[in-house]
Amino acid sequence: MNVLLVGGVSSLLNGMVNKLHKEGNRVHVLTGNRFKESGYSQKVFEKYSFPLESESLLEVFESVNPDVVVVMGAFDTNYNWDTPKKETMRFYAGLSNVLMTFSQMKKGRLIYLSSDEVYGEIYNQEIVEEEYTFAKGFHAVALAQAEEMCEGYRRNNELDIVTLRLDHLYCMPENEKDIYGWGLKTCLTALENGEVTVNSNRKFSMLYQADAVEAIYKVVNCTSHEKFIYHISDGKMISEMDVVQAVKQVLGEELEIIDEPDEEEKWQLLAHEAFDTEFRFSCRHSIGDIIPKIMVYMKRYRWKFQSGFRRKSLRERMGERMGTAFQAMIPFLENIICFIPFYFLHNYAETSAYFSNLDFYLFYVLIFAVVYGQLQATFSAVLAVVGYYYSQLYGRNHFEMILDYNTYAWIAQLFILGLVVGYMRDQLRVVRGEREQEIDFLAGQLEDIQDINVSNVRMKQVMETQIVNQNDSVGTIYEITAKLEQYVPEEVLFYAAEMIMKLVDSQDVAIYSVSGGGYARLVSSTSQDARKLGNSIKYMELEDMYQVLKEKRVFINKKMDETYPHMANAIYSEDAMQLIVMVWGIPWERMTLGQANRMVVISYLIQNAVVRANRHMEALEYKRYVAGTRILETEAFYTLVQAFQNARSRGLTECSILKLDVQPQEQEESAEKLRGKLRSTDYIGRLKDGNLYVLLSNSNDESAKYVISKFEEIGYQSHIQEEILE
Fold first, then answer.
1. CATH 3.30.70.270 region(s) of the chain?
2. Which helix (H) or strand (E) holds 533?
3. Choices 3.30.450.40, 1.10.530.10, 3.30.300.160, 1.10.287.110: CATH for 474-619
4. Letter string b/e over residues 682-701, b meaning 16 or more CB atoms within 10 A of that residue's CB
5. What is the pLDDT of residues 47-72, one digit of tens each?
6. Cβ pair 272, 218 in contact under 8 A
7. Which fold would CATH assign to domain 2-170+203-239+256-283?
């Protein structure tokens, strides 16, 4: 299933990525930001760095072709609600574009994540999903309006859109972006100030992120649902004092608690019975256990959480404002400074025979009109008029200047030319800006198309690799298991363990052969951990595993019980259990249905090789044993010994060889007596020196000494043979 997660980097989004990937889904992320941010989980199949308002959103959706879209909504870290007016418009625009694009796809399900904030300060009642919202504040109102937008698109376009309200969500924060909700903000306040003010009469429920992820996944994975809005809540009422007391367990005397309770008890709880009943959901984590762990982490990595929450000082804020004002004043200062030389040039030109016809004030106004536009042209014209007025006072009085129409003509000329040139300059700047904006938009579109194309090419290559070369592809599995055909029948089970180790990517694999009496004996293993159950087990006593294997299903150790392997599968022949394959050392995230299906395929292919080997040995049984005895012929026994020794050198099994001090004429009689002291997996045979030998499978020298003593009890001497001759 293709799942598209929409939102910025957060622990909630990464938790969803890990859960979805573990369950075998292909996860894509639309970051909502053009900048390529780090911090996303490595399990993301493909990441698209586009703002949610982007025109290329449809191309992204078409590229991903999602079955489910999860919009982080209330928990999207792309939005900084410290500037609510600006972020509200961005939030609406982004969500509207996502909904519009989803409606054009006409496929799949969209899940929008909201929070308890939409109910504002409603208390003393359990709130059902249909309750009218009383949101207060820009953030809460934005979330409530977003829910209305989702409902409108669902109803008008007949789409599968589900809204999930998470009740007071909290998590194990990685950094300051994960600090949201009353609980975590209280933890931060306690860490920073060493003092917390609480209302012990205020009660609510808090939902841990891991439980929220499990609940969201149930909606992602369901085939149908009854409602289109659900509450997800822990359902356990706690007070603010309970949370702070959990914080105090870590901070101790460093924390001072100030209780300012209301006169009446106030409580709020989102009704969650509808979701719990329909999806069989229940929370597993307790806030009393989690909050102390959160405080230990935040205290240890204090620097991660305090940098972004420090309030700027008055000096810093004044400095920022003065800097902004100075930037705006620069053109006016330039204008005033440039006016001074033009003032002297104008006065000089009036007394000069050569420059008297030049109007330096006009040049001055035109320069600023061309460079800065109408505003500065007007300001420079005013300065020029003032300068002209004072320069004329040297030769004439005020009355003469007022009656001189040439003064008014000159002023009109100055303002008209300055304003016209400034207006033309402003218009040219607007046209140029629109053209540059259009070019930037088209360039952005081209870049988006290129990014999407590169992503599609990469996805195509990945898919081809999965089909042809991936470890979990059927072709690769068959290629590896087919190598078993190259081994002699005695070696098949040894190297089958090695093959399974490669295919399931685990270093701890064991194969047990089922024998009579409900016992299974170890045939081969790849590590000491794989042998932890012992060389012989009574597999029927491992009830949880046996019941699953009896139904011909793969056992998955979901409880992580150390007495069981992480995964196991039985190999049958004609409805009789022949072998049990046990795998240890598999990480929790890979104990999935996909891995179980892979085990089934591997087991079937190995079964073919084992059955072929067994039939081959049965067909040649009359050639392998001395007539009328259970003594292996020289060639058959030597081949078997070589197979065991080669497997021992590769760490796949243990074995010991005993040489018996028996006369040639007594060998057949002795073999019959000795057989009663051996296991069904041990072998008696001859080598070319004519002596009788015993091959003890899955036995080291200590075990061999025990067998030697048993032989001595019935009158036969033997010793461990290190070197084997043909």
1. 622-720
2. none
3. 3.30.450.40
4. bbbbbbeeeebbbbbbbbee
5. 888 888 888 888 888 888 899 999 99
6. no
7. Rossmann fold (3.40.50)
Of 406, 335, 327, 340, whose CA–CA distance to 375 is shortest? 335
CA angle 666, 669, 672 (to 5 degrees): 145
At the second CATH level, the architecture of 622-720 is 2-Layer Sandwich (3.30)
With 0.70 as the threshold, say if the pTM is over it: no
**DSSP, res 116:** G
Please tell me the distance from the alpha carbon of residue 316 to that of residue 322, in angstroms, as a whole number.
10
- Compute the distance between CA of residue 612 and CA of residue 482 in angstroms, rounded to an integer: 12
**CA 527 to CA 65: how far, in whole Å?**
44
Contacts 24+ apart (CB under 8 A), 559-562: 560/588
Residues in the chain: 726
pLDDT tens per residue across span 486-541 = 565 556 777 778 777 877 778 888 888 887 677 888 888 888 888 888 888 888 88
Contacts of 149 (CB under 8 A, 6+ apart): 92, 95, 96, 99
Burial class (CB in 10 A: 0-12, 13-18, 19+), 423: middle
Cα–Cα dist 109/340, whole Å = 70
Indicate the residue type of 40. Y
Phi, psi at residue 594, to the nearest 5°? Answer: -60, -40
Quickly count: other Cβ atoms within 10 Å of residue 17's Cβ: 23
Nearest in space to 94 (alpha carbons), one of 54, 46, 137, 128:
54
